[in-house]
Amino acid sequence: MDLDELRALLARHARPDMTTPIDGVLISRTDQPTLASPSMSGSVLAVIAQGAKHIALGDRVYAYHAGQYLIASVDLPVTGRFTEASPTQPALGFGLILHPATVAELLLQAAPGDMPAAGGSAPSSMAVSDAPAELIDAVVRLLRLLDQPRDATVLAPLIKREILWRLITGEQGAAVRQLGLADSSLSHIARAVRWIRDHYTQAFRVEDVAQLSGMSVSAFYRNFQAVTAMSPIQFQKQIRLQEARLMLATHPNDVTGVGLRVGYDSPSQFSREYRRQFGAPPSQDAARLRSSPRTATPALV
Is residue 296 part of a domain? Predict the structure, then answer.
Protein backbone atom coordinates (compact mmCIF):
# COMPACT_ATOMS: atom_id res chain seq x y z
CA MET A 1 0.00 0.00 0.00
CA ASP A 2 1.74 3.17 -1.22
CA LEU A 3 0.51 5.74 1.29
CA ASP A 4 3.65 7.85 0.82
CA GLU A 5 2.78 8.76 -2.76
CA LEU A 6 -0.86 9.27 -1.78
CA ARG A 7 0.19 11.73 0.95
CA ALA A 8 2.47 13.61 -1.44
CA LEU A 9 -0.26 13.96 -4.07
CA LEU A 10 -2.86 15.11 -1.54
CA ALA A 11 -0.51 17.64 0.06
CA ARG A 12 0.46 19.08 -3.32
CA HIS A 13 -3.05 19.46 -4.69
CA ALA A 14 -5.04 20.44 -1.60
CA ARG A 15 -7.12 23.63 -1.93
CA PRO A 16 -8.97 25.61 0.75
CA ASP A 17 -12.36 24.66 -0.77
CA MET A 18 -11.41 20.94 -1.09
CA THR A 19 -12.31 20.82 -4.80
CA THR A 20 -10.14 19.52 -7.66
CA PRO A 21 -10.37 19.81 -11.47
CA ILE A 22 -11.65 16.21 -11.56
CA ASP A 23 -15.41 16.15 -11.07
CA GLY A 24 -16.48 14.53 -7.81
CA VAL A 25 -12.95 14.27 -6.40
CA LEU A 26 -12.20 16.12 -3.16
CA ILE A 27 -8.98 16.67 -1.20
CA SER A 28 -8.76 17.91 2.36
CA ARG A 29 -5.82 19.16 4.41
CA THR A 30 -6.12 20.14 8.06
CA ASP A 31 -3.15 21.42 10.06
CA GLN A 32 -4.53 21.06 13.59
CA PRO A 33 -7.13 19.13 15.55
CA THR A 34 -10.59 20.65 15.17
CA LEU A 35 -13.63 21.13 17.35
CA ALA A 36 -16.68 19.02 16.64
CA SER A 37 -18.51 20.56 13.69
CA PRO A 38 -21.99 19.60 12.43
CA SER A 39 -22.54 19.14 8.71
CA MET A 40 -24.12 16.79 6.17
CA SER A 41 -22.21 13.65 5.32
CA GLY A 42 -22.87 13.48 1.59
CA SER A 43 -22.84 10.12 -0.21
CA VAL A 44 -19.11 9.69 -0.40
CA LEU A 45 -16.01 7.55 -0.11
CA ALA A 46 -13.43 9.08 2.25
CA VAL A 47 -9.86 7.76 2.45
CA ILE A 48 -7.50 9.01 5.15
CA ALA A 49 -3.83 9.09 4.12
CA GLN A 50 -2.52 10.86 7.23
CA GLY A 51 -4.05 11.86 10.56
CA ALA A 52 -7.35 10.69 12.05
CA LYS A 53 -10.97 11.78 12.25
CA HIS A 54 -14.08 10.96 14.28
CA ILE A 55 -17.61 11.16 12.87
CA ALA A 56 -20.72 10.94 15.08
CA LEU A 57 -24.00 9.81 13.54
CA GLY A 58 -26.77 9.71 16.12
CA ASP A 59 -25.40 7.58 18.96
CA ARG A 60 -22.72 5.94 16.78
CA VAL A 61 -19.12 7.16 16.52
CA TYR A 62 -16.91 6.17 13.58
CA ALA A 63 -13.14 6.60 13.96
CA TYR A 64 -10.87 6.27 10.95
CA HIS A 65 -7.19 6.94 10.42
CA ALA A 66 -4.37 6.62 7.91
CA GLY A 67 -4.85 3.62 5.65
CA GLN A 68 -8.59 3.33 6.30
CA TYR A 69 -11.68 4.38 4.39
CA LEU A 70 -15.21 5.31 5.34
CA ILE A 71 -18.31 4.86 3.19
CA ALA A 72 -21.41 7.04 3.57
CA SER A 73 -24.29 5.83 1.42
CA VAL A 74 -26.96 8.36 2.53
CA ASP A 75 -26.63 12.13 3.04
CA LEU A 76 -27.20 12.49 6.79
CA PRO A 77 -26.54 15.05 9.56
CA VAL A 78 -23.27 14.19 11.28
CA THR A 79 -20.74 15.81 13.59
CA GLY A 80 -17.07 15.46 12.71
CA ARG A 81 -13.69 16.47 14.09
CA PHE A 82 -10.05 15.82 13.23
CA THR A 83 -8.30 14.23 16.20
CA GLU A 84 -4.77 13.96 14.78
CA ALA A 85 -3.31 16.84 12.75
CA SER A 86 -0.41 19.29 13.00
CA PRO A 87 1.45 21.71 10.70
CA THR A 88 4.24 19.16 10.26
CA GLN A 89 1.89 16.15 10.03
CA PRO A 90 -1.37 17.52 8.58
CA ALA A 91 -4.44 15.35 8.24
CA LEU A 92 -4.80 14.47 4.55
CA GLY A 93 -7.89 12.96 3.00
CA PHE A 94 -9.29 11.92 -0.38
CA GLY A 95 -12.99 11.98 -1.18
CA LEU A 96 -15.07 10.66 -4.06
CA ILE A 97 -18.75 11.52 -4.43
CA LEU A 98 -20.88 8.40 -4.95
CA HIS A 99 -23.71 8.49 -7.50
CA PRO A 100 -26.48 5.86 -7.39
CA ALA A 101 -26.80 5.84 -11.19
CA THR A 102 -23.15 4.86 -11.62
CA VAL A 103 -23.47 2.15 -9.00
CA ALA A 104 -26.57 0.80 -10.78
CA GLU A 105 -24.75 0.77 -14.12
CA LEU A 106 -21.87 -1.28 -12.71
CA LEU A 107 -24.27 -3.71 -11.07
CA LEU A 108 -25.98 -4.27 -14.42
CA GLN A 109 -22.66 -4.93 -16.13
CA ALA A 110 -21.47 -7.44 -13.52
CA ALA A 111 -21.69 -11.11 -14.42
CA PRO A 112 -24.00 -13.36 -12.36
CA GLY A 113 -22.21 -14.57 -9.27
CA ASP A 114 -19.64 -11.74 -9.24
CA MET A 115 -21.01 -10.44 -5.93
CA PRO A 116 -23.31 -11.55 -3.12
CA ALA A 117 -27.04 -11.00 -3.42
CA ALA A 118 -28.38 -7.90 -1.69
CA GLY A 119 -29.81 -8.57 1.76
CA GLY A 120 -33.37 -7.74 2.71
CA SER A 121 -32.63 -5.33 5.56
CA ALA A 122 -30.88 -2.01 5.15
CA PRO A 123 -27.21 -1.86 6.16
CA SER A 124 -25.89 1.02 8.20
CA SER A 125 -25.36 4.12 6.08
CA MET A 126 -21.75 4.35 7.31
CA ALA A 127 -18.94 1.85 7.70
CA VAL A 128 -15.16 1.91 8.19
CA SER A 129 -12.64 -0.60 6.83
CA ASP A 130 -8.91 -0.93 6.19
CA ALA A 131 -8.21 0.17 2.62
CA PRO A 132 -6.94 -2.72 0.46
CA ALA A 133 -3.87 -2.14 -1.68
CA GLU A 134 -5.94 -2.29 -4.88
CA LEU A 135 -8.12 0.60 -3.70
CA ILE A 136 -5.17 2.77 -2.68
CA ASP A 137 -3.47 2.04 -6.01
CA ALA A 138 -6.54 3.18 -7.96
CA VAL A 139 -6.86 6.35 -5.86
CA VAL A 140 -3.19 7.18 -6.45
CA ARG A 141 -3.57 6.70 -10.22
CA LEU A 142 -6.63 8.95 -10.21
CA LEU A 143 -4.78 11.70 -8.33
CA ARG A 144 -1.78 11.45 -10.68
CA LEU A 145 -4.12 12.71 -13.40
CA LEU A 146 -4.19 16.09 -11.63
CA ASP A 147 -0.66 16.48 -13.03
CA GLN A 148 -1.78 15.18 -16.44
CA PRO A 149 -4.83 17.26 -17.39
CA ARG A 150 -4.70 16.14 -21.04
CA ASP A 151 -5.31 12.54 -19.96
CA ALA A 152 -7.80 13.26 -17.18
CA THR A 153 -10.85 13.76 -19.41
CA VAL A 154 -10.63 10.23 -20.80
CA LEU A 155 -8.95 8.30 -17.99
CA ALA A 156 -10.51 9.80 -14.84
CA PRO A 157 -14.00 8.32 -15.47
CA LEU A 158 -12.43 4.89 -16.04
CA ILE A 159 -10.44 4.99 -12.81
CA LYS A 160 -13.42 6.30 -10.84
CA ARG A 161 -15.40 3.30 -12.06
CA GLU A 162 -12.55 1.03 -10.97
CA ILE A 163 -12.61 2.59 -7.49
CA LEU A 164 -16.36 2.11 -7.31
CA TRP A 165 -16.00 -1.52 -8.38
CA ARG A 166 -13.45 -2.09 -5.59
CA LEU A 167 -16.00 -0.70 -3.14
CA ILE A 168 -18.91 -2.71 -4.52
CA THR A 169 -16.97 -5.97 -4.26
CA GLY A 170 -15.17 -5.05 -1.03
CA GLU A 171 -15.82 -5.46 2.67
CA GLN A 172 -18.43 -2.67 2.77
CA GLY A 173 -19.94 -3.55 -0.59
CA ALA A 174 -23.43 -4.22 0.77
CA ALA A 175 -24.06 -0.56 1.55
CA VAL A 176 -22.64 0.59 -1.79
CA ARG A 177 -24.58 -2.01 -3.78
CA GLN A 178 -27.86 -1.03 -2.13
CA LEU A 179 -27.15 2.57 -3.12
CA GLY A 180 -27.68 1.53 -6.73
CA LEU A 181 -30.70 -0.76 -6.26
CA ALA A 182 -34.02 1.00 -6.78
CA ASP A 183 -35.94 -1.51 -4.65
CA SER A 184 -33.42 -1.93 -1.84
CA SER A 185 -34.26 -1.12 1.76
CA LEU A 186 -31.58 1.56 1.66
CA SER A 187 -33.20 3.27 -1.33
CA HIS A 188 -36.58 3.28 0.44
CA ILE A 189 -35.05 4.88 3.54
CA ALA A 190 -33.16 7.37 1.36
CA ARG A 191 -36.53 8.37 -0.12
CA ALA A 192 -37.88 8.99 3.39
CA VAL A 193 -34.76 10.93 4.34
CA ARG A 194 -35.21 13.21 1.32
CA TRP A 195 -38.89 13.75 2.15
CA ILE A 196 -38.15 14.70 5.75
CA ARG A 197 -35.36 17.05 4.63
CA ASP A 198 -37.67 18.72 2.11
CA HIS A 199 -40.50 19.09 4.66
CA TYR A 200 -38.52 19.47 7.88
CA THR A 201 -40.67 22.36 9.14
CA GLN A 202 -43.83 20.24 9.07
CA ALA A 203 -45.08 17.86 11.72
CA PHE A 204 -45.62 14.37 10.32
CA ARG A 205 -46.85 10.95 11.33
CA VAL A 206 -44.35 8.10 11.05
CA GLU A 207 -47.13 5.98 9.53
CA ASP A 208 -47.44 8.40 6.59
CA VAL A 209 -43.71 8.46 5.86
CA ALA A 210 -43.57 4.66 6.12
CA GLN A 211 -46.34 4.45 3.53
CA LEU A 212 -44.44 6.87 1.29
CA SER A 213 -41.43 4.55 1.57
CA GLY A 214 -43.45 1.46 0.69
CA MET A 215 -42.83 -0.22 4.05
CA SER A 216 -44.86 -1.35 7.02
CA VAL A 217 -44.44 0.90 10.07
CA SER A 218 -42.39 -1.68 11.97
CA ALA A 219 -40.08 -2.41 9.01
CA PHE A 220 -39.70 1.29 8.26
CA TYR A 221 -38.82 2.19 11.83
CA ARG A 222 -36.34 -0.70 12.12
CA ASN A 223 -34.61 0.11 8.83
CA PHE A 224 -34.60 3.87 9.46
CA GLN A 225 -32.81 3.28 12.78
CA ALA A 226 -30.33 0.91 11.12
CA VAL A 227 -29.44 3.40 8.38
CA THR A 228 -29.46 6.70 10.29
CA ALA A 229 -28.87 5.71 13.95
CA MET A 230 -31.87 7.94 14.73
CA SER A 231 -35.64 7.74 14.85
CA PRO A 232 -37.50 9.71 12.15
CA ILE A 233 -38.45 12.39 14.70
CA GLN A 234 -34.85 12.68 15.97
CA PHE A 235 -33.68 12.98 12.37
CA GLN A 236 -36.14 15.81 11.72
CA LYS A 237 -34.87 17.62 14.82
CA GLN A 238 -31.26 17.33 13.60
CA ILE A 239 -32.22 18.85 10.24
CA ARG A 240 -34.20 21.66 11.90
CA LEU A 241 -31.31 22.59 14.16
CA GLN A 242 -28.74 22.52 11.35
CA GLU A 243 -30.97 24.69 9.15
CA ALA A 244 -31.47 27.07 12.08
CA ARG A 245 -27.72 27.32 12.49
CA LEU A 246 -27.31 28.31 8.85
CA MET A 247 -30.05 30.95 9.15
CA LEU A 248 -28.54 32.40 12.32
CA ALA A 249 -25.25 32.98 10.53
CA THR A 250 -27.00 35.68 8.47
CA HIS A 251 -29.77 36.66 10.96
CA PRO A 252 -28.04 36.56 14.35
CA ASN A 253 -30.50 38.96 15.99
CA ASP A 254 -33.65 37.05 15.04
CA VAL A 255 -33.42 33.95 17.21
CA THR A 256 -37.19 33.73 17.79
CA GLY A 257 -37.97 34.20 14.10
CA VAL A 258 -35.45 31.57 13.04
CA GLY A 259 -36.89 29.09 15.52
CA LEU A 260 -40.38 29.63 14.11
CA ARG A 261 -39.19 29.29 10.51
CA VAL A 262 -37.61 25.89 11.13
CA GLY A 263 -40.73 24.55 12.85
CA TYR A 264 -40.42 25.34 16.57
CA ASP A 265 -43.55 26.80 18.18
CA SER A 266 -41.81 27.36 21.51
CA PRO A 267 -38.80 29.74 21.65
CA SER A 268 -37.67 28.20 24.93
CA GLN A 269 -37.72 24.68 23.47
CA PHE A 270 -35.78 25.89 20.43
CA SER A 271 -33.13 27.56 22.58
CA ARG A 272 -32.86 24.53 24.88
CA GLU A 273 -32.48 21.99 22.07
CA TYR A 274 -30.12 24.25 20.13
CA ARG A 275 -27.83 24.62 23.14
CA ARG A 276 -27.90 20.87 23.77
CA GLN A 277 -26.93 20.23 20.14
CA PHE A 278 -24.28 22.90 19.57
CA GLY A 279 -23.02 23.65 23.09
CA ALA A 280 -24.05 27.33 23.16
CA PRO A 281 -27.26 29.40 23.06
CA PRO A 282 -28.40 30.42 19.56
CA SER A 283 -27.30 34.06 19.79
CA GLN A 284 -23.85 33.18 21.13
CA ASP A 285 -23.32 30.44 18.57
CA ALA A 286 -24.43 32.78 15.77
CA ALA A 287 -21.61 35.19 16.61
CA ARG A 288 -19.13 32.31 16.45
CA LEU A 289 -20.53 31.16 13.13
CA ARG A 290 -20.11 34.55 11.50
CA SER A 291 -16.37 34.37 12.10
CA SER A 292 -16.13 30.77 10.89
CA PRO A 293 -18.52 30.14 7.98
CA ARG A 294 -19.44 26.59 7.02
CA THR A 295 -18.67 25.02 3.68
CA ALA A 296 -20.93 22.87 1.54
CA THR A 297 -18.45 20.06 1.07
CA PRO A 298 -19.06 16.65 2.65
CA ALA A 299 -17.97 16.39 6.26
CA LEU A 300 -16.20 13.05 6.05
CA VAL A 301 -13.19 13.89 3.91
Answer: no
Residue 295 belongs to some domain of the structure: no
| Residue 111 in this model has a pLDDT that exceeds 90 | no
* Among candidate residues 230, 237, 235, the one with its CA nearest the CA of residue 194: 235
Q: What is the mean pLDDT of the chain?
A: 90
Q: What CA–CA distance (Å, rounded) separates 240 from 26? A: 27
Beta-bridge mates of residue 77: 40
3-state helix, strand, coil in the chain (%, to 5): 50, 20, 35
Q: Which helix (H) or strand (E) holds 29?
A: strand 25-30
Domain count across the chain: 3
User: Once rounded to an integer, what is the mean pLDDT over residues 87-93?
Assistant: 96
Neighbouring C-beta atoms of residue 173, cutoff 10 Å:
19
Residues 24 and 88 placed together within one structural domain of the fold: yes
pLDDT band at 114 (very low <50, low <70, confident <90, very high): confident
> For residue 197, which of 149, 147, 232 has the smallest C-alpha distance?
232
14 occurs within a structural domain: yes
User: DSSP state, 147?
Assistant: G
pLDDT of residue 297: 54
Do residues 193 and 76 lie in contact, with contact meaning Cβ atoms separated by under 8 Å?
yes
Whole-number Å distance between alpha carbons of 72 and 68? 14
For residues 241-280, one letter each, b for 16 or more C-beta atoms within 10 angstroms of the residue's C-beta and e for the rest, the string is bbbbbebbbeebebbeebbeebbbeeeeebbebbeebbee
Nearest to 175 by CA among 93, 239, 116, 114: 116
Q: Following DSSP, what letter does each residue of 67-130 receive, concatenated?
A: TEEEEE-S--EEEEEEEE--SSS-EEEEEEE--HHHHHHHHHHSPTTSSPPPPSSPPPSEEEEE
